[in-house]
Amino acid sequence: MSPVLAGVLQLLALIAALALAYVPLGNYMARAYSSDTHWRVEKWIYKGIGADPDTEMRWPAYLRGVLAFSLAGVLFLYLLQRLQGVLPGSLGFASIDPDQAFNTAASFVANTNWQSYYGEQAMGHVVQTAGLAVQNFVSAAVGIAVAVALVRGFARSRTGELGNFWADLVRGVVRVLVPIAVVGALILVACGVIQNFSGIHEVGQFMGGTQQWNGGAVASQEVIKELGTNGGGYFNANSAHPFENPTPFTNLFEIFLILVIPVALTRTFGVMVGSVRQGHAILATMGTIWVGFVALMMWTEFAHHGPALQAAGGAMEGKELRFGIGGSSIFAVSTTLTSTGAVDSFHSSYTGLGGGITMLGMMLGEIAPGGVGSGLYGMLVMAVIAVFIAGLMVGRTPEYLGKKIGTREIKFAALYILITPALVLVLTAAAMALPTPGNSMTNSGAHGFSEILYAYTSASNNNGSAFAGLNADTQWFNSTLGLAMLLGRFLPMVFVLALAGSLAEQKPVPATAGTLRTEKPLFTGLLAGAILIITGLTYFPALALGPLAEGLAA
C-alpha cells in the first residue's frame, strides 16, 4: 500500500469514527448541561466547595467563578512544584525554579500545556498526577462551561442569567470527561501505553551504555491530555514517545480523542438552541477548514524533491516511521487546529510551508474544530462577525439565531478577535528586538524567526506545541509566555461571557423574508471566508517573514 493511500484511508476511518460519535455524544452533553437533577457525587462536591448549584448567575458572577477557580489552580500548582523536593514520590527530582513553576502553572491552568522542561527529568509522580493531570480535567471543563454559557445566551431571552458556573464545571468533569477518559485509558493500556508508578530504572544498551527511564501513570494522563485538548506529555517526546503512543492504531485513536468533543459540541449547540441544522452549519465550516488543511499538509510533506526525499517517500525528517507522513500530517493539523498542542512528530522539521500550515491553524483561533469549549465559542464569535459583515452588505441590522447584533455585541466580538493577534505580534516583535531572547534560537534567518513566532502563537492561542530548536527555559520566555497564556485564555472569556449576557437579555426577533439563513451552505461559505480573510490580513506580514520565506526559498 502506498503511503499516500494509507494516509487517505486513515483520514476516512477517522471521519467515520467521529460521525458515529457525533449524535449520541452531542445529545448526551446537551442533556447533561440542561438537567435539573444532580448526581450524588456531584452533591458531595458542591457541599465540599460550598456552592449552590441551583443559583443562576449573570455574566459578571459567572466570570468571577471562572477567574477565582483558575487563580486557585495557578497558586496550587505553583506551590506543588516549588515543594516537589520535599514531597513523596518525587523520584528524587528537585523543586522547580520560580520562573519555570509560574510558566508551568499558567500553562496547565490555561489549558495550554506548554512545557519548557523535560517531563521525565523534572516532574515526579505527585506533580504529574495530583497537579498536571488534575488541571487537564478541570481546565477543559472550564472551557466547556464558558461555551455552554454562550449557547445559553443565544437560547435564552429577556434574562441575563447564564446558568451556574460551579454546576457546569462539575458536570463537565463528572459526566463528560471522566467517563470517556476511563474508557479511553483502558483502551490505551490494552494497546501498550504504560500505566504504573515505578521509579527510575535502566533499560538495555545504548551506544555502549544504558538508558534510564522512569515509569508513570502515562495512559491516564495521555487520554485526558488529548480528550481535553491539553497536550502536555508525560515525556519530552510527547506523543512521539512509544510509551505514550506505541502503534498506528493508538495514534489514530488519540487524534479521535482530540477531535471528538469539539466536533460533538456543535450538535450540543444545535440541540440547546432548538435547531440542529444550526449546529450542522457550524460543523460544516469547521470540517471544511480541517479537511482543507489536512490535504494541504499531506501535499506539502509528500511533495518530494531530490533523491533523499524520493527514497524516503516524502519529508520524513522529524517523523516516526510507525506513523508515516499521513498519520503525522493528520495529527499535526488536528493538534494545531485545536488547542491541544500534543505532537507525534516535530513541526520544526516539517517543510517550510508545512510548518506554516501548523502556525496558520493556530492563528485562525483554533476553531476548526478548536479546543474543548473554546473552539465552539470562538466559532460562534466569528459567526457574529460574519452576520455583521453580511448586514453591512445589504444594509440590514444583522441577526443571528433570532438575536440582533448591535453595537454592543459587535464590540465584544471585535475585542475578542483582537486579543490574541496583539499578544502574538507585540511579544514576537519584542523578542526579536531585544538582544537576549534571540540567543535562544537554534537557527538563524527565516526559520529562527519562525521558532519565536510559533512560540508566541502557541502560547497566546492556548495550544502548547513548540517549533523545537527554541530554548524556552529562560526567565524571559518563561515569564512572557506565561503571561501570554493567561491573557490569551482569560481575556477572551471576559468578552465571550459579556456577549452571552447581552444576548440573553434580548427578546427574540422573528425571522422574516430578509433574514439571513444561517443554517444554509451560503452562510457556511461566508463564515469560512471571513475567518480566512481576517486571519490573513492580520498575520500575513509575519508569515511572510518566516515560513513563507523559508518555503519559497526551498
From TrEMBL:
The chain crosses the membrane at residues 61-80, 137-155, 176-197, 249-269, 281-299, 374-394, 415-434, 481-501, 522-542. It is found in: Cell membrane. It is a multi-pass membrane protein. Belongs to the KdpA family. Part of the high-affinity ATP-driven potassium transport (or Kdp) system, which catalyzes the hydrolysis of ATP coupled with the electrogenic transport of potassium into the cytoplasm. This subunit binds the extracellular potassium ions and delivers the ions to the membrane domain of KdpB through an intramembrane tunnel. The system is composed of three essential subunits: KdpA, KdpB and KdpC. Keywords: Cell membrane, Hydrolase, Ion transport, Membrane, Potassium, Potassium transport, Transmembrane, Transmembrane helix, Transport. It comes from Streptomyces ambofaciens (strain ATCC 23877 / 3486 / DSM 40053 / JCM 4204 / NBRC 12836 / NRRL B-2516). The gene is kdpA. This is Potassium-transporting ATPase potassium-binding subunit. Its main location: membrane. One of its GO terms (molecular function) is hydrolase activity.
